[in-house]
Design brief:
The complex is a heterodimer of chains A (189) and B (319).
Chain A: H1 3-14, H2 22-37, H3 43-61, H4 69-91, E1 94-95, H5 106-129, H6 132-141, H7 146-160, H8 164-188
Helix pairs in contact in A: 1-3, 2-3, 3-4, 5-8
Chain B: H1 3-10, H2 15-22, H3 28-40, H4 42-60, H5 66-74, H6 80-99, H7 110-122, H8 125-188, E1 191-192, E2 198-199, E3 207-212, H9 214-217, E4 224-227, E5 233-240, E6 247-254, E7 258-266, E8 269-271, E9 274-281, E10 289-298, E11 304-316
Parallel strand pairs in B: 3-5, 4-11
Antiparallel strand pairs in B: 1-2, 5-9, 6-7, 6-10, 8-9, 10-11
Helix pairs in contact in B: 1-4, 2-4, 3-4, 4-6
The chains are: A mainly alpha (189), B alpha+beta (319).
């Protein structure tokens, strides 16, 4: 995708000449989740392919008539998914490394343990980057299980003066930030 | 009520439907509109993220009922991204437990203290007098002491509960290890008939085990595995002839279909000088048919060579 095509796509998604790119990032995240829910092995690639096709069309035609930008992207995503499904059926081969009995291999066990520790380190580092309030909230949010967890969350919500549902949503947003930070941290290491 | 909650209350979906959607339990007709909403509707996209986190947490904390857990394991965990989400949730839960000691429970509302401070700061000592101030302070101290006692007893209760949880976790861990040991025993102790036929272990229909040895490759009668409807896993131990390959690739070939499953970069296990490969075949690819497990070895230079074909037959039973 050329720089100008990308800029045009960002503006079109934001319906504005001045764009922060937030709509693009949101849409890309939703597309990745969509392809992942459809069990596509390369969800990120398919999301990029969808956005590339939209950008190409915009570049060629100058504009796209659609109810909304997101709706048009969904229609393109469906085509991309159908094509991918057809390709996968054609090859009708399930390649899977996960089905190996991992527990039986001491080396893999050791690798898994190392990765787990690395995840902890990353989580520790990433949680330090959160604001004090958010860090406190997320630490308290994951205390306990079953009834203890429910009571704990109720008391946090009371303390913050919000409903438990609103607390869940708030915690989920912080969790998303953490997940993205940890992924970056793991990729770098 | 926040905007997302308002949106959900008028939306054509609820948390149960969202969970079914995430677990792939809805029909194509029901799935399609939710697919569209997941891209076009910001509120639904966020509701999905929240529901997915809750679902994964419930799985990690073993809070799902048996049926939902089965669906989660069979359908949800199908992609690396989703498996990574589960690993992240596990890390987060464990991190929460590790951090628990650092986090103190919420103490009495600071509003009271600040109110008291502000009141005393503003009032002249001459106006109110030492006696009134002492009275109010005493009342506050008594109140705080009661609060302190209450919080301490709550903390003790939480600690006791955590200890119980830790004990039950240890018990579960023991049970799991025992289950793994017995599963391993099944893999290593096939039921052989005089004809070399290998049957599933009669004690468990959920996990079937099969051992394929080089000798069976030349046998007249192929090993047969009777697959019941409730079978959830088929483990296969392939005993290898002595060789120098560092890793192996396995292809499952179905008669009339060709390859239906493949595993690569498998490391052999060595025991008493004999090498073997441990495999778990996905039940979804196994139909009533004749199969061949084709084993190829890969040497240190990356060169690959077929080292053997291991035929077997799958029968489906209605047990």
């Amino acid at each position: 995708m050329t720089a100008s095509a990308f800029r045009r796509l960002l503006n079109w998604l934001d319906e504005s000449e001045t764009t922060s790119g937030k709509s693009y990032l949101d849409l890309r995240r939703r597309l990745v989740a969509y392809f992942d829910r459809k069990d596509c092995p390369a969800a990120e690639d398919l999301a990029d392919e969808t956005l590339n096709r939209v950008a190409r069309r915009l570049e060629e035609e100058g504009s796209i008539e659609a109810e909304t930008a997101a709706k048009y992207c969904y229609i393109v995503a469906r085509f991309v998914f159908m094509e991918n499904l057809r390709d996968r059926k054609k090859h009708a081969l399930i390649e899977d490394r996960e089905f190996q009995v991992a527990e039986s291999n001491p080396l893999e066990k050791e690798n898994e343990r190392a990765t787990r520790e690395k995840r902890f380190d990353c989580l520790d580092r990433c949680s330090q980057k959160l604001s004090a309030d958010n860090r406190d909230l997320i630490l308290r949010y994951y205390i306990g299980s079953q009834q203890v967890k429910i009571e704990n969350r109720r008391s946090i919500a009371n303390k913050l003066g919000i409903s438990v549902n609103a607390l869940t949503i708030r915690a989920c947003r912080i969790r998303e930030k953490l997940a993205a930070c940890i992924q970056q941290c793991l990729d770098v290491e | 009520m926040c905007s997302l909650e308002r949106e959900m209350s008028k939306a054509p979906y609820n948390s149960e439907k969202i969970n079914d959607y995430l677990l792939g339990s809805l029909s194509a007709e029901e799935t399609e509109p939710l697919d569209e909403l997941s891209i076009t509707d910001a509120a639904f996209a966020e509701a999905l993220i929240v529901a997915e986190s809750e679902l994964i947490d419930a799985y990690v904390l073993n809070e799902l009922d048996a049926q939902t857990r089965r669906k989660f394991e069979n359908r949800y965990l199908a992609t690396p991204i989703k498996r990574e989400k589960v690993k992240f949730a596990e890390t987060l839960q464990q991190f929460g437990s590790r951090q628990q000691a650092r986090v103190t429970p919420y103490a009495a509302a600071p509003g009271w203290l600040s109110w008291l401070k502000s009141q005393f700061g503003r009032q002249s000592i001459l106006q109110w007098g030492f006696a009134a101030a002492a009275l109010v302070l005493s009342a506050a101290v008594v109140w705080l002491a009661f609060q302190n006692i209450r919080l301490r007893s709550e903390m003790l209760a939480i600690r006791a509960h955590n200890n119980e949880l830790a004990q039950s976790q240890q018990q579960l861990q023991k049970q799991l290890e025992e289950a793994q040991r017995s599963a391993q025993a099944r893999v290593e102790t096939p039921v052989k008939t005089d004809q070399g036929e290998i049957k599933d272990h009669p004690a468990s229909s959920a996990v079937l085990s099969l051992v394929l040895t080089p000798l069976l490759r030349g046998a007249q009668q192929k090993p047969t595995l009777n697959l019941a409807g409730d079978t959830t896993a088929v483990t296969v131990k392939v005993v290898l002839e002595p060789n120098d390959f560092s890793s192996y690739r396995v292809e499952l070939l179905a008669e009339g279909q060709g390859p239906v499953w493949r595993a690569v970069n498998l490391k052999p296990q060595a025991r008493n000088g004999a090498q073997s490969l441990a495999l778990a075949l996905p039940v979804r690819v196994l139909k009533a048919n004749n199969y061949v497990l084709r084993i190829s070895g890969t040497d240190k230079n990356g060169a690959s060579e077929v080292v053997g074909d291991y035929p077997f037959t799958i029968n489906k039973t209605n047990r």
